[in-house]
Amino acid sequence: MEITVYPQQKSSFQGPHELYFKNLIKRKKKQVMEKNGDNRKLRVCVATCNRADYSKLAPIMFGIKTEPEFFELDVVVLGSHLIDDYGNTYRMIEQDDFDINTRLHTIVRGEDEAAMVESVGLALVKLPDVLNRLKPDIMIVHGDRFDALALATSAALMNIRILHIEGGEVSGTIDDSIRHAITKLAHYHVCCTRSAEQHLISMCEDHDRILLAGCPSYDKLLSAKNKDYMSTIRMWLGDDVKSKDYIVALQHPVTTDIKHSIKMFELTLDALISFNKRTLVLFPNIDAGSKEMVRVMRKKGIEHHPNFRAVKHVPFDQFIQLVAHAGCMIGNSSCGVREVGAFGTPVINLGTRQIGRETGQNVLHVRDADTQDKILQALNLQFGKQYPCSKIYGDGNAVPRILKFLKSIDLQEPLQKKFCFPPVKENISQDIDHILETLSALAVDLGGTNLRVAIVSMKGEIVKKYTQFNPKTYEERINLILQMCVEAAAEAVKLNCRILGVGISTGGRVNPREGIVLHSTKLIQEWNSVDLRTPLSDTLHLPVWVDNDGNCAALAERKFGQGKGLENFVTLITGTGIGGGIIHQHELIHGSSFCAAELGHLVVSLGGPDCSCGSRGCIEAYASGMALQREAKKLHDEDLLLVEGMSVPKDEAVGALHLIQAAKLGNAKAQSILRTAGTALGLGIVNILHTMNPSLVILSGVLASHYIHIVKDVIRQQALSSVQDVDVVVSNLVDPALLGAASMVLDYTTRRIY
């Protein structure tokens, strides 16, 4: 059976960057040859630590070997390559006909955190002698392993130029810190994706020393599909196994949470045993926790189970064939989210080890793999599928680009790195006034009636607040916003508040990425397709954030209110309209078209009253301030609103508060209207509980306290028993819209993700 080849995704490795690089080569080639000497070969040291990095370095090594007139290659082998328990993988380097100049035993056994640190120290002790002897012009270091950090540290301190492969990527463990540390030590960078290139630039690396080449392993694997694969499958899994009817499992410990990763591995093996498919299980890498993972394998009898083949190592050429024709790959190896995408093989990525990686459509993430059922469900969803092939990480032409890049290196250039820092507009002196400044935000709340601006401190204290009526036209409104913000910013200086930015809360649908109000509510006229960010940023020279008022209320609860520290909760605002915000896994949900959490427009009755959105029977049509005002006017017109002890002045409009007052004084009809409104809100919240299953629901706004008891009664009567224990509370925040607008600024500028 041959693999079905789907159309491949467009590569990002061609275009302006490729043209730029060709021009750079032409410009520098003559100059470099003259400076380095026509007969001067570049002495390149390639250091490989384990089976994974060799799969990326081997194509480069083969390329260097084919051009002996330009390069001299020295190979240093260290790390787990030289350990029997991990397959003695240095042998595959010898089988590839490379001369190993140096073997360094650098691993301190123990497979725990201390052993990793001791291994780095041992490598640092041994490497100086090797580098003094070899005297390379440049050392090629790959990736993010602790061994690689020792290599980069040694080379940098010994004034040897470093070329780092796969910098700028994000995974999700301690590897990120190691990878970025090597980036700062390295002089030249070869990255695999456009995002990684942008990350390197953001890290102040010199753009002229960054090459977007793609992953070198793709040069081999993109040409490997059509080889005889059935003999490889039979060799490793048995004669009775068919293509697409087996699983490849490769799972490593997560060094920042070893206990959980061992438990997750145990659940994975249990799920694979239950799934009952032939499975090739590779032993984990040498990170802290691997010894415990091997114990789990042996405790469950995996090495002797008829459905499993447990191996320490598979040569890369054969491993490619195995994953290309597997029914599924499962685990947390970077191979699953990087290389396997080239074949469209389904992948189940478990836990957080690769959570930051760019992935193709073939990857299904199971971030909280805390039960066997979750993993089994993922296996049922993924096994046997075929996805489009992905070229996110390479197009098969990385090595030629890397060799050109190596030839362009001018050894006469100063060794000292240059960092390209972004310009800093002002240098604030560290005098006592600056140290004692209160870090603050300007918060703007655009309501249907009022326009409010406040100075809000980091602790959520409203230092000063300004209120004006919201003008009816766009021009008057934007001018008033600018005027109030300028005045507030000037006042902040007198109050010794340092303004970090501006946050704006407004009604309607908002694109927070662009700072644009897409569509507004009927309460705010001339407020569609409005760019709020640009005029404010240009006037105040400050960053500006904009979001919907319901989302801002949720952000306020997350930072200052009862949602602080909670992973999942929902906020509903009960005011003139009904809005809301959803926090899921600590993050605000915006939705694909920025329309998430329009909770006021959940339909709770097919034949209900008309809603301002054009539909019928929405929560807002029953429970909003506008809806209560409508019902109050009806009662007043029929002389059924006022009871003893009540009066409405002639110049005062009848509103929701009069209805509430009448209900408190015993008006049965007013009480019935409020009960219906609270029931509609309660039914909406029941739907939210059944859909989102949050751990808390927070009612905010002027009407919240009047609805809370009715809502809880509805939940007791209508909700599933599994969600009846979810707490519903009234917000204790006085100005959630202003505090939420401020939190956008304060969270971002103090490095919390928003």
Automatic annotation (TrEMBL):
Family annotation (CDD domains): ASKHA_NBD_ROK_GNE, GTB_UDP-GlcNAc_2-Epimerase
MF GO annotations? kinase activity
Keyword hit for Transferase: yes
Give the record's keywords alphabetically: Kinase, Transferase
| Top-level taxonomic group | Eukaryota
Q: Which SUPFAM superfamilies match?
A: Actin-like ATPase domain, UDP-Glycosyltransferase/glycogen phosphorylase
Instruction: Name the Pfam families on file.
Output: Epimerase_2, ROK
Ranges for domain UDP-N-acetylglucosamine 2-epimerase come to 69-407
Q: Please give the InterPro entries that the UniProt record associates with this protein.
A: ATPase_NBD, ROK, UDP-GlcNAc_Epase, UDP_GlcNAc_Epimerase_2_dom
Q: Which NCBIfam families match?
A: NeuC_NnaA (TIGR03568)
**UniProt-listed PANTHER family:** BIFUNCTIONAL UDP-N-ACETYLGLUCOSAMINE 2-EPIMERASE_N-ACETYLMANNOSAMINE KINASE (PTHR18964:SF149), ROK (REPRESSOR, ORF, KINASE) FAMILY (PTHR18964)
Q: What is this protein called?
A: Bifunctional UDP-N-acetylglucosamine 2-epimerase/N-acetylmannosamine kinase isoform X1
Q: Which gene encodes it?
A: GNE
